[in-house]
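In response to reviewer comment 3 from the previous cycle, which asked for concrete evidence that the modeling workflow produces usable outputs, we include below a single protein chain processed end to end. The sequence was submitted unchanged, and the resulting structure tokens are shown without manual editing.
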Amino acid sequence: MGMKGKVALGAVVGIVVIGAVSANAGNNGDDNGKSGSDKGTSASAGHDSDGKKTAKGKDSGGTKAAEKKVAFAGDGEFRVGKDIKPGTYRTTGNSDGMCYWERAKDAKGEMDSILANDNVTGASYVTVKATDKIFKSNGCKDWEAVELKAKAKGTPAARMAGDGGMFRVGADIAPGTYRSTGNTDDSCYWERTKDAKGDMNSIIANNNVSGTAVVTISASDGYFKTTGCKDWKKA
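The workflow returned the following structure tokens.
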């Protein structure tokens, strides 16, 4: 279990809609809140030619990268409560879907051990619960701890990269209605979630899209995930 590029439990990531088997699995507890993050934990941002801020879901280098506080490496199997603390973590700058993470209830390495998992392009958040036993990470960039209760600094972006991964609502991106155009072959997948546990119960809504995609992200949403889409702009 947990090899690079491994397909997430249940289905290929991003080929699901609500009512079908999710790319993630399991059910475990509640998140600890969705208030804004501090500097160094929000998605890095660039600017389009018109000067508007766009959440990229990857490190931009320079000062922000230097300020990043690494909690643990992107490769390894970690005992929760011993090697790593329970909490919410974030990894950025991943490419080609080669980053794989897994929350597990034991160290048996069996399918039944998996609580939730995912393959990641761009950024990803995950909440590791105190009741989890093992957290696995392969092929990922280093993980940093996220201060969920810290006040957000700056203005959340009104645009985001279509393959940027996972964004915190109210910290990385602003709530509102977003539009992505020019998608083909149902390769665009989006997901609204209430928390970062990564299991089926986290999903509020999701879809695979060809052509134009329109989604309203609520202020009460925890995160928004986008994979294989064209860039999103707030309508």
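The CA atoms of residues 149 and 165 lie 22 Å apart. We consider this sufficient to address the reviewer's concern, and the full set will be provided in the supplementary archive.
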